[in-house]
Amino acid sequence: MKPFLLLSTRDHEGAAEGEYASFLAFTGLPAERLHRIRLVCEPDADVELGRYAGVLLGGSPFNSSDPLEAKSAVQVAVEARLRQLLDTIVADDLPFLGACYGVGTLGVHAGGVVDRTYAEPISAVRVTLTDAAAVDPICADLPSSFDAYVGHKEAVRELPPGAVLLASSADCPVQMFRLKRNLYATQFHPELDAAALAQRIDVYKYEGYFPPETAEDLKREIAAADVEASHAVLRRFAEHYG
């Protein structure tokens, strides 16, 4: 069986390792079947997409919608590499699932509008599936609504042409969409449980996602949420394409 590929854009070592552990846990894949490339460390890494059953893209400290002059040289290099990879992934309809930063990256690449209109603070939100999700192979067996973790400064305001909306929340109309048959993106984090999100809160405490003095309160709030159903998105993706 082919392995999957996780593309990581996190420069913080702890956050990058925690992200990989989370994707392992909730895809259900063994380590030998989930390869990882940290694009912040090796943006020019040779990637043979044909080796992989599917590609996963995790979250990021980057924002796709930031003006070019506000982006670091590392972000510019990473996003240029992602565009190159997505050129092939989208053209060939290769199985892809992007989480959080992935929704912005795929959305922008495919012609959607991504901006800060529908930002959401770190929290657990109620995600509701659309009628289209009922016949989608990844979403069909999920509950019609479930809680999931979010925390983002940007979101899709206008879907890319041809995209199918699969899920929404009260304050963010695009929580999940599909392009073609095999290209998926979620605004919510299907890879996060409470412990992993608590780690992110510590890592990004001073990055503008929340007032730093509220960090411990946030950890208590997220710990009370049941987001187990959201993890099924990753598991179903790995099973369907594995």
TrEMBL record:
Pfam (any one): GATase
CDD domains in UniProt: GATase1_1 (cd01741)
Signal sequence residues: none
Annotated ranges, domain Glutamine amidotransferase: 50-193
Keywords carried by this UniProt record: Glutamine amidotransferase, Transferase
Listed GO MF terms: transferase activity
Annotated GO CC locations: cytosol
PANTHER family: GLUTAMINE AMIDOTRANSFERASE YLR126C-RELATED (PTHR42695)
Entry protein name: Glutamine amidotransferase
Species annotation: Tersicoccus phoenicis
